[in-house]
Amino acid sequence: TASCDFNSSFICIGSPPIAFTSNDTSNKMFSSKVLFSLSFLASASAFQPGAFGSITSRQTTALNADAATESPNIALDRIKNQFAESGQRFDASFDNMVKGAFPGALSNEELETRVVKILSGKGYDSTNTLLCTSLCCDELARTLEDDFVGAFGNNFNLGGLAGFPFAGNTGFGAMSAHVPDDGYCLLVYGPHVGIAKDGTIGKVERQGIDLIDNCCGSAIAASNYVKGITDGGATLSTNIQEFTDFQQGAVQELILPHGKRLSDAANRMHELPYALYDSQDLLVRDIVGTGAGSIKAGLAMLGGIQINTGPDTLDYFHPLRFDYLNNDGEVVDDMLPLLTQ
Question: What's the pLDDT score for residue 13?
Answer without folding.
Answer: 40
